[in-house]
Specification:
3-stranded mixed β-sheet; mainly alpha
Length: 346
């Protein structure tokens, strides 16, 4: 029996997620086909700009609604975290009884479902690495429609712009198959290490009040800070550096491809950046608590790293970053591209 009831998480997420834009069936079908077309059109220019190529028979992107995004991500979270939870229970040497597992599974399932519901209305697209499953590129149709309307930008250009970013993630992983296994292993290892024992739980509980201002501060990494020892913060920093690379590289490719293929790319970038900065106060606080705001820094810091390296050694020299885990940037190198160039291209 699992310690998280993932089916209950899906049900909770579907119940809590807000409805998307109101459209007719014909409008919905047209939007789905337009997104699929934009995703297919992004493949060649992204591959040429990134100078990385993947098998030509790659499946088309999956255009999904919010409920389907929740279901897919619940399955991926289950595949990623369940082995880690089993390892944590084994390490502690105490196995909860069947009744406790049922109750606990519902509680944690509800918590996971609530988080997925929050994210499902925000995410435009995602390359789902699907631990133990089949990876796929997801594009969330209602969110693409809603965001284009909110920003008041050309819908076709906005679809193309988002697809360029998400297609870059697909290329990153499919051109470098080791990267998926590496990230899954690192995430599972970190999840096991971050789980506090009973003694640390009591220590954390006693410090929650005094740490609340830090948790809600701008740029924090959220609740994970409560659990992390200095060694674990170092692990978090390494994983964050990789995520900064992935997000920053996708932003750089998207913006490099954009001018030749997306007439209104400058307007879209300007309005989208302003939207990130202008999130409402409750939304911003929740993002900080969950550590999601740190993801926004990853775009900026990662893009600066990518452009800094490319300025020194070109795109082909930068692509050495995809060679192995050892050539991924270390945390300090994200802010110092020259240090990465010296280490990798010495």
């Amino acid at each position: 029996m699992g310690y998280v009831d993932w089916e209950f998480a899906k049900t909770t997420g579907r119940t809590l997620v807000p409805a998307g834009p109101v459209v007719s069936p014909a409008e919905a079908r047209a939007e789905v086909e337009a997104i699929r077309s934009a995703a297919r059109a992004a493949r060649e220019p992204v591959a040429e700009t990134a100078r990385m190529h993947t098998p030509p028979d790659a499946p088309d992107a999956l255009v999904v609604d919010r409920a389907t995004w929740i279901a897919v991500n619940a399955d991926s979270m289950s595949a990623l975290l369940d082995p880690a939870v089993d390892a944590i229970v084994e390490k502690r040497g105490v196995v909860p009884g069947a009744a406790a597992q049922v109750v606990g599974g519902k509680v944690t399932g509800a918590e996971a479902g609530a988080l997925l519901a929050f994210m499902a209305s925000k995410v435009l697209g995602q390359y789902d690495i699907a631990p133990d499953g089949t990876p796929s590129l997801l594009l969330v149709a209602p969110n693409l429609m809603a965001t284009a309307r909110e920003l008041d930008v050309d819908p076709a250009d906005f679809r193309a712009w988002v697809c360029m970013h998400e297609e870059t993630h697909r290329v990153q992983f499919t051109a470098n198959p080791w990267l998926r296994e590496h990230l899954v292993a690192e995430a599972r290892h970190l999840a096991i290490d971050l789980a506090p024992d009973q003694e640390r739980l009591q220590e954390i509980a006693s410090r929650v009040t005094e740490r609340l201002p830090e948790l809600f501060s701008e740029g924090g990494t959220g609740l994970a800070e409560l659990f992390a020892t200095p060694e674990q913060r170092e692990q978090l920093a390494r994983l964050t550096a990789v995520m900064s690379l992935l997000e920053g590289h996708a932003d750089v490719v998207m913006d490099d491809v954009g001018p030749a293929h997306i007439p209104s790319v400058a307007e879209i970038r300007r309005k989208f950046t302003e939207r990130r900065k202008g999130a409402g106060a409750p939304d911003r606080l929740l993002r900080r608590l969950l550590g999601l705001e740190a993801k926004m820094r990853q775009y900026r810091d990662g893009a600066a790293f990518v452009r800094g390296v490319q300025a020194e050694v070109g795109v082909e020299g930068f692509n050495a970053v995809w060679t192995s885990p050892e050539t991924l940037p270390m945390p300090q190198e994200i802010a110092d591209p020259t240090a990465w160039v010296r280490r990798v291209h010495a």
